[in-house]
Every structure is written in structure tokens, then in C-alpha cells.
């Protein structure tokens, strides 16, 4: 297959766009498209201070690389989860993130959960009913809280994450299977800060296939953590991605169409305004982030519980 | 007329002369879930597998 733009040998075939590109043109195309999505969804401007949530994986490091090349003011935030799983998962992901930042002279903020809260994520999860079997939900809850806190405290205008189209399509698939109206209503390339405790969030890679982001990281020579989080084995999101990829193999463009037609349907008013979900949100007395129950939000209750147990 | 396809710690022997997409299909590996490389270079799925080729696949799915 030849590159559509120069007739050199293509290194990637994006069947959903009927587009094959050589290395140079692919590395040029990805940042151009990212810029297009940033503008289309009004994610942020060159004046904004951006915080990139960095995990050491291909998507977040590729995103940081692209924003840096597009000359946005983007710092990184790495959260040390304390996950080992026999492969030193967190240590290795921190090393990849630090090396990436050092080589490019970028600022990386590191928050170590054990240092800050006294326990690693698996340890915190062990002490709760929701996380005893699998720490993923406690991990997600903790990361969201910490990302919001750091972004707000340090004055960032927007927090960006490396969610790609496969991530978004898998979430959409899961939420549709269960008709989770509230989640469907909220899923979007941009999440406005609709509470004083929250920061604005954006997903500039939401229209790229996961395969394209992996190709971008490889072709750019970005060293990322290849091994999966040891706790993700058997995760529903991975199962949904595999199902969607089987569909994509028979119908190129199916994943993209699923996601984009959802966004269009939402814009056309398919989902009711979120009155159904507008519960009485209060501010957590400890961190200021929104909560529907009690004085403390779920995360602050979790770390308080941990403190009480370990005393 | 054989070649190898490697995905993580799995090694598969495949017939040379077919393209990557067809070989992946026979192995029941969704082409969308991997990137194929040969001698460290990315290759597209219409590439014909030559005798003695070692095609390494990079898994692209992550999440949890």
C-alpha cells in the first residue's frame, strides 16, 4: 500500500478513512487532526494552562507529545498508585513518564498516593467493600479526586486525558447495554466544570483509534509502558473493546460511526436535559469537590477510613 | 514456505505468500487490536508475508 500523499510505502492503513500514510505524513497528520478536534469541540486555547494526566502509557504520552509540538502550555501530572503486580508496574510507568518529561524539558508533577495518603491504591481498596475483589473502582475514584484537586490548587484551566476512540466507544457500549442515562448524558469530548470543586476536562484524542495512538508512539520513538496494569485482566472495558474490534474488522468505520452518531444524536436532543440527574450536590467539607451524600465525598471518606483503621 | 508471527509470548507458524490480514484472520487475531512490524518497521495488513519472515505484533488494547 502506498501513502495517499506522496506514494512512498504506507506504514499504516486507516480503513475507516480509506487512508494509508507513510511515516512522515502520519506523524504530521496526527497533530493536525488533534488541532482540528481541539478547535471543533472548543477544548482550550493557546492561552490556557493545561494539565495532562500522564500514566506512562502510549495514549497519555502521545497526547503530551502532540500538545508540546502544537506549542500548548502543557504540564504533566503523574499519580503513583503503588501497583506492583510482580512487574513493578507503577515504578516502570513513573520511569517512562519522568524520562519523557526530562528529554523534552517539560514539567511533571508527581503525586504518590502512599506518601500523600498513607496507603497504596491496592491497600486502600482492601479496606473497602467496593474494592476488596478488584481495586479498579477505588483507583478510578482516587485518580479523579487527585486530578481535580491538583488542577484546581495549581491554577490549571483544563485537565486533559488521553482517552482515545476505543476507550470512548467501549464506555458508550457499556452504558448503552445498561441504558445508563446519566452517564450517556455526560459522555462528551469536553466536560464542563459544572461545580466549583471541579476542573474543566477535555479529551483531544477522542476521535483517534487506539491503534493509531500506538502507531504514533512507536513511530515517534516514545518509550511507554507496554505491560497492562495487572488488575486490568478480565476488565469489562477490554472485553468491549475486543467485541468492537471484531465488528470493526467486518465493517471498517463501525466504531467511529458508533461514537460520532452518538454525539450527533445527543446534540439533536435524543437525551433529555439532565434534570433527572440534577441531584442536590453539596461540596465536600474536606476537598470541596461535589458529593451527593454526607459532608465528605466518597474519596475523602475512603482515606479517612484508612486513617482510622491504621491508627 | 513458512514464517512466524509473534504476539507477546505466543509464537505462531504461518504460511508465507499470504498477506498479514489473512494470516491474522486464520489465527483469530483481530487486525484492529494489533500493529504488525517486520524488522522493526511498521507494515500494513496488505503486506505479503515472505518465507522466513518474523512478524512481531504489538498489542494495542489497554484499559481497565
Gist?
Chain A has 311 residues and is an alpha/beta fold. Chain A has helices spanning 23-40, 58-69, 89-104, 113-117, 121-126, 136-153, 165-177, 181-186, 210-220, 236-250, 254-267, 298-310; strands at 12-14, 19-21, 49-54, 73-80, 108-112, 158-160, 190-191, 200-202, 282-283, 290-291. Chain A has 12 helices and 10 strands.
Shape annotation of chain B: globular
Please, what is the oligomeric state? heterodimer
How far from one another are the termini of chain A?
64 Å
Q: What's the structural domain tally of chain B?
A: 1
Number of helices of chain A: 12
Structural class of chain B: mainly beta
SSE layout and pairing:
The complex is a heterodimer of chains A (311) and B (64).
Chain A: E1 12-14, E2 19-21, H1 23-40, E3 49-54, H2 58-69, E4 73-80, H3 89-104, E5 108-112, H4 113-117, H5 121-126, H6 136-153, E6 158-160, H7 165-177, H8 181-186, E7 190-191, E8 200-202, H9 210-220, H10 236-250, H11 254-267, E9 282-283, E10 290-291, H12 298-310
Parallel strand pairs in A: 3-4, 3-6, 4-5, 6-8
Antiparallel strand pairs in A: 1-2, 7-8, 9-10
Helix pairs in contact in A: 2-9, 7-10, 7-11
Chain B: E1 2-7, E2 10-15, H1 20-26, E3 34-38, E4 41-43, E5 54-59
Parallel strand pairs in B: 1-5
Antiparallel strand pairs in B: 1-2, 3-4, 3-5
Amino acid at each position: 500500500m502506498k501513502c495517499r500523499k506522496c506514494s512512498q510505502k504506507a506504514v499504516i492503513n486507516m480503513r475507516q478513512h480509506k487512508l494509508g500514510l507513510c511515516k512522515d505524513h502520519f506523524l504530521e497528520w496526527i497533530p493536525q487532526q488533534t488541532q482540528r478536534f481541539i478547535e471543533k469541540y472548543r477544548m482550550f486555547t493557546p492561552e490556557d494552562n493545561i494539565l495532562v494526566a500522564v500514566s506512562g502509557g502510549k495514549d497519555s504520552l502521545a497526547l503530551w507529545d502532540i500538545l508540546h509540538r502544537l506549542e500548548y502550555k502543557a504540564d504533566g501530572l503523574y499519580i503513583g498508585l503503588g501497583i506492583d503486580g510482580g512487574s513493578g508496574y507503577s515504578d516502570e510507568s513513573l520511569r517512562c513518564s519522568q524520562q519523557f518529561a526530562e528529554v523534552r524539558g517539560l514539567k511533571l508533577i508527581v503525586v504518590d498516593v502512599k506518601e500523600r495518603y498513607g496507603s497504596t491504591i491496592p491497600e486502600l481498596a482492601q479496606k473497602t467493600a467496593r474494592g476488596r475483589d478488584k481495586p479498579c473502582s477505588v483507583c478510578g475514584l482516587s485518580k479523579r479526586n487527585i486530578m481535580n484537586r491538583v488542577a484546581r490548587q495549581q491554577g490549571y484551566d483544563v485537565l486533559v486525558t488521553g482517552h482515545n476512540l476505543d476507550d470512548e466507544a467501549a464506555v458508550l457500549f457499556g452504558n448503552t447495554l445498561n441504558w445508563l442515562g446519566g452517564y450517556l448524558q455526560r459522555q462528551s469530548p469536553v466536560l464542563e466544570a459544572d461545580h466549583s470543586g471541579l476542573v474543566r476536562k477535555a479529551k483531544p484524542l477522542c476521535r483517534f483509534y487506539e491503534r493509531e495512538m500506538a502507531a504514533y508512539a512507536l513511530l515517534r520513538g516514545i518509550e511507554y509502558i507496554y505491560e497492562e496494569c495487572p488488575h486490568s485482566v478480565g476488565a469489562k472495558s477490554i472485553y468491549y473493546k475486543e467485541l468492537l474490534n471484531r465488528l470493526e474488522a467486518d465493517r471498517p468505520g463501525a466504531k467511529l460511526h458508533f461514537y460520532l452518531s452518538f454525539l450527533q444524536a445527543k446534540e439533536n436532543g435524543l437525551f433529555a436535559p439532565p434534570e433527572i440527574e440534577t441531584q442536590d450536590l453539596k461540596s465536600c467539607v474536606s476537598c470541596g469537590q461535589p458529593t451527593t451524600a454526607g459532608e465528605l465525598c466518597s474519596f475523602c471518606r475512603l482515606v479517612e477510613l484508612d486513617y482510622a483503621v491504621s491508627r | 514456505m513458512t514464517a512466524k508471527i509473534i504476539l507477546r509470548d505466543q509464537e505462531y507458524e504461518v504460511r508465507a505468500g499470504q498477506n498479514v490480514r489473512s494470516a491474522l484472520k486464520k489465527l483469530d487475531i483481530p487486525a484492529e487490536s494489533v500493529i504488525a512490524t517486520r524488522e522493526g518497521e511498521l507494515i500494513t495488513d496488505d503486506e505479503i508475508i515472505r518465507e522466513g519472515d518474523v512478524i512481531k505484533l504489538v498489542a494495542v488494547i489497554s484499559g481497565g
